[in-house]
Amino acid sequence: MDILSLELHKQPDSNAIPTKDQSAKAESIASHAVLKLRLADTTSRGAANQFDRSASVRSARLLSHPGDGDGQGCVRIKFYNILVTTDPFQPVSDLEVYFDDSGTDANTPVAVAACYIASKEQWNDFARNWDEVAKAEGFEAFHMSEFVAKKEAGRKPFCDWDNRKKGSVYDKLASIINTRIRRGFAVAVPKAQFDRYVFQEFKDGYAADHYTFAIRTILSSISDWRQQYEIRGPMQYVFDRGSLNEKRIEQIWKEDSRNSAALVERRFGMVPEGIMFQDDAFFKPLQAADILGWQVQNHMRRTILIGLPTSTRGHHGHEALWKNRSLTVSYYGTEQLEESFSGAKAYRDKEGKWPWEDNLFRERTIRREGGSVY
Predict the structure, then answer these.
(1) What is the CATH number of the domain that holds 113?
(2) Could you give the angle at which helices 210-228 and 246-268 cross, rounded to 10 degrees?
(3) Are residues 184 and 329 in the same domain?
C-alpha cells in the first residue's frame, strides 16, 4: 500500500494552508499507534475494492490539495510508514523485519541480503532518533553507496562533508541501530561460485538467483531464532521498493504460504499479507538494512574474496555495527556452496524428492569460519 490520505474537511480555497488547529489534529491522529482507515486497494483484476484495515502509523504530514473539479480544496493528512492488515480484527504484528539487498548489480561479485528486526515501539523510537540526526546534520535519506562515493560524483550533501563529519554522522547512525534493533541477520553469496554449482531444478524449485538464495538462508536463521526464543505469531516483512528481485520475493511468500501456510507462519512468521515493498525515504529502518548490507558486502570483498579469513578485523564502519552482538552474519565459501547443492542431489537420490519438497527442509549456512572462495 502506497502513501495514504485521510480527508479532514473541505475548504473553499484550493490552495488553503493548514491552520494550527488542523496541524494539532494531524499530530493527535499520528500519535495513535493503530488507526482504522477506509483504504482503497486495487486487486490483480484492476477493480478498486474497499477494506477496513488496521494501520500502524509512524509519521504524518498535513498537506493542502486542490479540489476535484468542484472549486473546493481539501486538507489531507498524508501518512507514512503504514503497516496494514486486511483483517480489521487481526492486529499488526509487534515485530517488523526490514530487508535490503546489496550487490544485485550484475557487475558486483557478491550478493548480500540483510535485515534488522525490532518491535514496533523500538522502530518508532528508531525513526524519531534517525530523523533527529538527519535534521541536525542536513541530509534526507542515507544510502551507503552515496555516502562513500567519491567527491567528484557529486552525491550531495555527502560530497561536501570532510572525513571527520562523515565519521561523526556514521557513528551516530550506527549507535541508533545498535540501540534499537533486537536482532540482525545477513548472508553473503559469491555469485560466480553459486553459478558454478547451481542446477536448474534448484533454481526452479527453491531459489532462482543469488539474492533469493540469500533470503531463503536468512529465513532459516529467523526460524531458528523464533524457535529458540519461543516467538510465535506473524511478523511484518518490509522490503525496499524497486528491488530487482521484487517479483521473486513475492513468489516466495505466495508459494510457501500456499503449500503450507500454518508451517511457514510458525517458522518464519510469514503470512500472505505480511509482506510490503516500500520507499526507504519514508520507511527509515530500510536505511539501516542498507548500511548492514553494504558493510557485509564490503567486508567479504576485503576478506574471503582475497583469501583472508572473515575474522580479519574490518574497518571502523564495519566494526561499529558489531558493538551490538545480536547480529548473525554468514559468508558462503566455495565449499559451503558445493555442499549445499551436492547435498540436495543426495537427498533426492535417497528420498525420491528434492529437499525443498519436504516440509522439514530448511537451508542453513555452515556456521563456522567462512570458507575460501576459488
Answers:
(1) 3.30.420.10
(2) 20
(3) yes
C-alpha cell at 334: 566455495
Q: Write down the pLDDT at residue 373.
A: 62
Find the helix or strand (DSSP H, E) in which 37 lies: strand 34-42
Last residue of a domain, one of 37, 63, 85: 85
Q: 296 and 176, same structural domain?
A: yes
Instruction: Verify that 80 and 99 share a domain, yes or no.
Output: no
The model's pLDDT over 86-103, given as tens digits with 9 standing for 90+, comes to 333 344 468 999 999 887
Write the pLDDT tens digit of every residue in 67-78: 333 333 333 333
Q: List residues bridging with 187 in a β-sheet.
A: 113, 330
Are residues 217 and 154 in contact, defined by beta-carbon separation less than 8 angstroms?
Answer: no
- Please state, in angstroms and rounded to a whole number, the distance separating the CA atoms of residues 310 and 299: 8
CA nearest neighbour of 253 among 266, 241, 265, 240: 265
Arithmetic mean of pLDDT, 181-210: 93
pTM of the model: 0.75
Based on the domain organization, do 344 and 319 belong to the same domain? yes
34, 54 contact by CB (below 8 A): yes
- 69 CB burial (10 A radius; 0-12, 13-18, 19+): exposed
Using the predicted structure, report yes or no on whether residue 29 has a pLDDT greater than 80.
no
Q: Is 371 inside any structural domain? A: no
Nearest to 273, CA basis, from 90, 80, 46:
90
Q: Which amino acid is at 319?
A: E
Residue keyed to cell 473546493: 72
Domain residues for 353? 95-357
Higher pLDDT, 208 or 27: 208
Residues 140 and 193 in one domain: yes
- Whether 297 contacts 100, CB under 8 Å: no
| Residue 372 banded pLDDT, cuts 50, 70, 90 | low
- Residue 362 falls within a domain, yes or no? no
**Residue after which a domain boundary falls, among 51, 85, 119:** 85
More confident position, 262 or 283 = 283
